[in-house]
Amino acid sequence: MKIDLHCHTVASDGVLNPQELILRAENMQIDYLAITDHDTTAAIMPARELASRVKIINGVEISTTWQGFDIHIVGLGFDLTDQSLQNALKVQRETRNWRAQEISDRLCKRGLDPVYQDAAVLANGGTITRAHIAQVLIDRGVENSFVKVFNKYMTRGNPGYVPSPWMSIKQAVELLHLSGGVAVLAHPLSYQLSNKWLRRLVNDFAQDGGDGIEIGMPQLKRDHQRWLVTLAQEHQLLASVGSDFHKPMPWRELGRYLALPDNILPIWHQILPDIELQH
């Protein structure tokens, strides 16, 4: 059984539309796929209508603020029609668009041409993310990689950095629980926290009612995975798996390199009660 509980479409910062994503997932023989676009669920119903083999799980990736850091919470298995959740996600999307304009304005003050309109074209009606802005700068030859754009322009202390008034982790967890879903701490090693601060993040997430943590991820070293398993077990958190797929690339593919160790309980028994507890 192949499960991937974290991927993106053109509804946020992915490059594939729902039809293309479903075709790829079925070619990869995925059994269960959660589409987790940033602060939007717009791609889920179109994908579900197109899917034949793969089963689509309701998902979303919610941006939150914790101790001055942007922390992402993946929601799974919630009710798509829950109005409180959808209203909160709408506010998040409006905040993203405000942030994109603010980033553009700040970059202009440093001598770069405006990026907002070109980023909006790339978003094609979806939410404008920092990835769209980064792609505009790459396309213009300002830098040649996402890493360089983010490190030079959009991280803390740089000209395009804009702190965002996201909801708290606790608010995100409560919204997901009230809508019938579960909350997962996404890609915990991507926030560049020390072990001490990562332990603090996981502890606070658990104290706020979080359910799971991503442990099955591409390019994750075994010692790092063991560390995440230890943190999960210390706080009675379940394990999730996710490629965080945005576009086709050799090292990040739907359903690939997402194995969990045998000593951790997977989260999908909470959202997929009809399948066996296996991974």
TrEMBL record:
Domain Polymerase/histidinol phosphatase N-terminal: 3-66
Matches recorded under InterPro entries: PHP_dom, PHP_domain, Pol/His_phosphatase_N, Pol/histidinol_Pase-like
Annotated PANTHER family: EXONUCLEASE, POLYMERASE_HISTIDINOL PHOSPHATASE N-TERMINAL DOMAIN-CONTAINING PROTEIN
Pfam families: PHP
Single GO molecular function: 5'-3' RNA exonuclease activity
SMART domains: POLIIIAc (SM00481)
Gene3D superfamilies listed in its UniProt record: 1.10.150.650, Metal-dependent hydrolases
Protein name: Polymerase/histidinol phosphatase N-terminal domain-containing protein
